[in-house]
Amino acid sequence: MQELLPSIHQSIICMVAWVEKKSEISIDIGKLTICHWKRGSSERKIGEIVNVSMMVEGCAKGVKYGLFVANAVILVGGIVVFSVGIWTLADRSFMERLLGSDLYVSSASILIATGIIVTIISFLGFLGAVKEIKCMLLTFFIILFMIFITMLVGGILGYVFRSEVDDRMHTEMLLTIKLYQNDTQVTDAWDAVQTHFQCCGLSLDKNPGYEVWSKQNAHFGGVYKIPATCCKTKDDGLRDRCQKDPNEMNAYLEGCYEKMKDFVERHAKIVGGIGVGIACLLLVGMALSCALFCLIK
């Protein structure tokens, strides 16, 4: 077999030379191959073929390792998105009743679902890259593309309707003032908001926020002027005095709307930043998976 290798190699050179019309004569007699070529052009052609093959193989390995890294980053990103969604849903959902919209909680649910899907899909990308299975890589690309489009559309809608959310929040907060102590969900929401943001009521016509309670709610038109959660102290005796005669020393007098609005805007920026970051990672993952798909024979 070793004796045949030189002859086989010579035959390949002659064939390439003949195809390129750079060989004058090619004769094969048994194990003996005779080939006349012009100025080593066939040998140069064989070298070029080998070099191109090595370049393609090296490029495929680079793309493969790049896809590994991209999937690792996407996996971490999915975990981060999932964690932010859980934090939002568990720690800040008390504001939903006063927002006049379910977008806040819905965004948290979308983050959780997206985080789970992205985390699972990253494993699919790993497996497709390791095994070099074109079907898995194609599936990986399609799912990433669908997630990317969903996040893009969600971002555009959030940007378009952001001002509408502000207006609805102000209207809903004003309407729920009258329902305080008549609706358990509303009462709990206002108590949580006033405690968390250290505010009181809603500012109307440039008046202090705490005044809205005595003007808009029948429970605070007599002896008590504000809810207990507007008071700075937790002592029952001092809190009773605070509710009867609120002032800067014992109560929060500033309205809650601006603080809630600022919080929602900051949260929207965080969610938007995470969304843009994940979208960029998805683009990289799609590009690398598509490249590896094309390079696999």
UniProtKB/TrEMBL annotation:
Recorded topology in the membrane: Multi-pass membrane protein
Ranges annotated as spanning the membrane: 65-90, 110-130, 137-161, 270-296
Location of the protein in the cell: Membrane
Keywords, ordered alphabetically: Membrane, Transmembrane, Transmembrane helix
Any Gene Ontology CC annotation: plasma membrane
Pfam families listed in its UniProt record: Tetraspanin
Family: Belongs to the tetraspanin (TM4SF) family.
Domain of life: Eukaryota
UniProt name for this protein: Tetraspanin
Coiled coil (UniProt feature): none
